[in-house]
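Sequence in, structure out. Go.
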Amino acid sequence: MPQYFPPNANAFAKWLIWGGLVFTVLLVTSLTVYARSANNRVGVPVPQPVAFSHQLHNGQLGIDCRYCHTSVEVAASANIPPTETCMTCHSQIRVGSPQLAVVQASWETNEPILWNRVHDLGDFVFFNHSAHINKGVGCSTCHGRIDQMEGIWKNEPLTMGWCLECHKNPAQFVRPREEVFNMAYERPEQQLELGQELVAAYNINTEKLPQCSTCHR
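Output:
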């Protein structure tokens, strides 16, 4: 009977199978890493139609977060302020400035400013700003030192693993409610003791926090 395959055909087939498996694993891993990192450009400034400076407004002028983000304490979303909020000041201050041309045009045409989103969680994630604010999670914990940012960017990855660091041990992160909007707040040396007291005082359910249904509903 004639021999149709060369002597090394078995070895070739074996290496082809193993090579295919390795390639498949590397491909799946690479796609997973890409999917997780594509929307997590931490520290990269996001261009906006108006060069709004949190450093100026919140840092130097001391304007409270809640002046613009009015719903942050009572709703799931920290609303983007309407043009009317901007014009409360800028109808009197820096009137006619080229830097505010987009704001002025929005006010005159009644068309909202199209801000570019910075923090964009997946549709499969439920996040409630008011729940975090009222349980003692400070703005700077997730958003960083906004009061020092000339532009705006994502300060933390906001991945599930990052969120679970707090959900598994909230006592390490919570602060007194009166300090939530204090951007310069630093955790004290006795944070664990203070945190445990606040977890109890704010009725934080430490058993429910790490459960999937808390964020995925």
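Check: The chain has a mean pLDDT of 90. The two ends are 65 Å apart (CA to CA).
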